[in-house]
Amino acid sequence: MADTIQSVKGMNDVLPPDSARWQHLEATCRELFARYGYGEIRTPVLESTALFARGIGEATDIVEKEMYTFKDRGERSLTMRPEMTAGCARAYIEHSIHGKEPVTRWWYCGPMFRYERAQTGRYRSFWQIGCEVYGIAEPTIDAEQIAMLTELYTSLGVGDLTVLINTVGSAEDRPAYRAALVAFLEPKQDALCGDCKRRLVTNPLRVLDCKVPTCKDAVAGAPALRDHLGERTRAHFAGVQRTLEALGVEAKVDDNLVRGLDYYTGTVFEITSAAGALGAQSTIVAGGRYDGLLESLGGQPTPAMGFALGVERALLCMGGDAAAFVRPIDVFIATRGEDSRVRATALAHALRKAGLAVEVEHRDAGMKNQFRRADALRARHALALGEAELASGGAKLKDMATRQEVEVRLDDVAGIAAAARA
Ligand code: ATP
Ligand code: MG
């Protein structure tokens, strides 16, 4: 026998019925985002490597060690998108959206790729759903996005939520803070992990975000960014908090929340869920403001705010048996012989046009076997088309739960549909 080929490490298939849970989550997002005025954007999986190096930042985990980068046959360096914010920003600039409308609201859904240590809630191919708003500098939009997310998770039944917010300050606030943080951390260098020793030079704020215990200890008592914020940043953050309060969203300020990506300015947030017992992977969505990103990619200065939620992580925290999300079959048609199968196929075709979900037994199987399959499929009704039914043109539609039967005419599609809906 030939060797079988396995899927790539950290990259998973999603099969029915589990895909029904995915569809439920996606449909909930689609409907919710439409109510908030977002339109869907779809961009290619592949982008120029330079987009991520510039957009996300060279000194980030993603760009330093997580990207799937390769040369195509034309020697161009391409990268499989590790996130969507950079790609959306590229599209916004490329399509001159700035000149077309003052406010743009986009949402997206798709697979992202990062070369990470695969574990529960952390994969090399994973799905993100996210939103991007361009053109609004005011803090009310930051709060609106956070509130929309708490609404989303609540309606999905993802519980035990904690909303963490912080501000990483503006480009003007950061140099002074950076200097204070480096002065504090330099004497403790030996206690830092290898990555953080490097970050101390390239991107010291990232040390605050490190999950290594010795680094966590080292940053205890570090100067708080909060004490280095300018008036504008402080007023903005107060505006976010005030709006969250008005929306009834409880948010905790977390001084060490800095987020891993370079492009953030001002508000940053994460929502965690304890429902999936995911430990270090309990962050189900992260986002923030990146007012400098578009300009840094060659666009007009444009305020922007967005988030990305992890689909697999949300699903790990969402209750519900997968089968409960699958559309049940309204009518299962059991058959005997080829004449019966032809007639059943035509009847099913008509019933499906009338809006019902119908399964025909196309295999030449025994009746008992067929009814067992109808049960396994959780069919709500069954209709057997044996010789007698074909001859008389009448049949019995059986309710699989109550076992009650009603007489139907095989040529009365509307009547069968009505009986199956009753
Ligand atoms: P983490 O600290 O867990 O690595 P991150 O800061 O790299 O997360 P973001 O880039 O902000 O994550 O992505 C937003 C969300 O996407 C995360 O909060 C998480 O829910 C999800 N996510 C990120 N990386 C992965 C992954 N490798 N596998 C599954 N989900 C992921
Ligand atoms: Mg990460």
Protein architecture, described:
Helix content is 38%, strand content 21%. It has 422 residues and is an alpha+beta fold. Strand 15 and strand 16 form a beta hairpin. Helix 1 runs antiparallel to helix 5 and helix 5 runs parallel beside helix 9. It starts with 17 loop residues before the first helix and ends with a helix. The relative contact order is 0.12. The site of adenosine-5'-triphosphate has 18 residues, from strand 6, strand 10, strand 11 and helix 11.
Structural shape = elongated
Give the overall pLDDT as a whole number: 94
Low-confidence stretches: none
The largest beta-sheet arranges its strands as 1-5-6-11-10-9-7-8
What's the number of helices? 16
Please give the domain count.
2
Q: CATH H-level name of the largest domain... which superfamily?
A: Bira Bifunctional Protein, Domain 2
In angstroms, what is the radius of gyration? 28 Å
Supply the CATH class of the largest domain: Alpha Beta
CATH-level-2 architecture of the largest domain:
2-Layer Sandwich
Bound molecules: adenosine-5'-triphosphate, magnesium ion
Q: What is the percentage of strand-forming residues? A: 15-25%
Stated plainly, the CATH topology of the largest domain is called BirA Bifunctional Protein, domain 2
Helix coverage percent: 25-40%
Structural class: alpha+beta
